[in-house]
Amino acid sequence: MRVFKELCTEAYAKRGFAYEGKIQKQLYAMGLANTDKTAGASNRADVVFTHRGKEHNLEIGTAGKDFAQGKVHWRNGSWYADTKNSQAITDYLQTLTYDEDLMNVWGPVALGKSSEAQITPDMRVKAARSGGDLYLTDIDPDIISNYYADKGVYYIHVEGAGAFHLSANPARLPLPYFDVRPEIRFRVKGYGSGKYDTTWAIKIPTSSLPASPYTFDPDDTQRKGPAEFLK
User: Fold this and answer.
1) Which residues contact 14 (CB under 8 A, 6 or more apart)?
2) DSSP character at residue 176
3) pLDDT in tens, 187-228
4) Count of structural domains within the chain
5) CA–CA separation, 196 vs 73, rounded Å?
6) What is the reported pTM?
C-alpha cells in the first residue's frame, strides 16, 4: 500500500497541472498566448504568454509545489546532491553542509551498522519514514531565480500570492521581484522491493511568500489581471 505522503504528492501534481491548464487556456482566449496547451509533465515552462509579439515563459506555483528538485547520491563516503536541470544549482548544492545532517539520521551509525555496505535499502526507507523529512534553512534566497534562469524562465505566478519576475524582467512588466526565504527538503522515497531514492526539493514556507498586486489568473479579482499589465 502506498503511504499517505505519496498520495498527497500525486494530488498536488494533478491540482498543479489543472491550475496551469486553466491559466494557459484563459490567456489564449484573451489573445495573450499563442497556444492553449501547457507543458504538462515535460521539462518545458509551465505556461507561455505573449507580450508585444514576443513569447515569455511562466512558472506556475500551487500549494505544496516543489520549486526545484533532484537526487542525493552516496559517493565516496559522502552525500552528493545534484539536478539534471541546472548546473548552477548543482554547483551551489556542493557548497552546502548537509552531509553531516543526513549521516546523523540515515548513515550507518544511525542505523546501527558499522559501514554503508551493511545497510539495505529497506533499512534506509524504514528509518526515513519513521523519522520524517529533513529541512535545510538559511540557503541562498535567490536559488529559485537562479534555477529557473537556467531554464529560460523569468516570470512566476503563485496561486494566492500573485505574479512576480525572477532573475530578470525582459518584458519590463510592473511585477515585483520574487523575494522569498526558501528551504531545501531532503526525503527518502521508497518504491517497494527494496528500491528507493534519496531526493531533495526546494520548498517555500507559506509565511515566506510575498504578496503581489498583479496576477496571471483572470479569476483572481483581488489583483490586477493580465489584461491590464500585458497591454
Assistant:
1) none
2) P
3) 877 666 666 778 899 999 888 889 999 999 988 999 999 999
4) 1
5) 11
6) 0.80
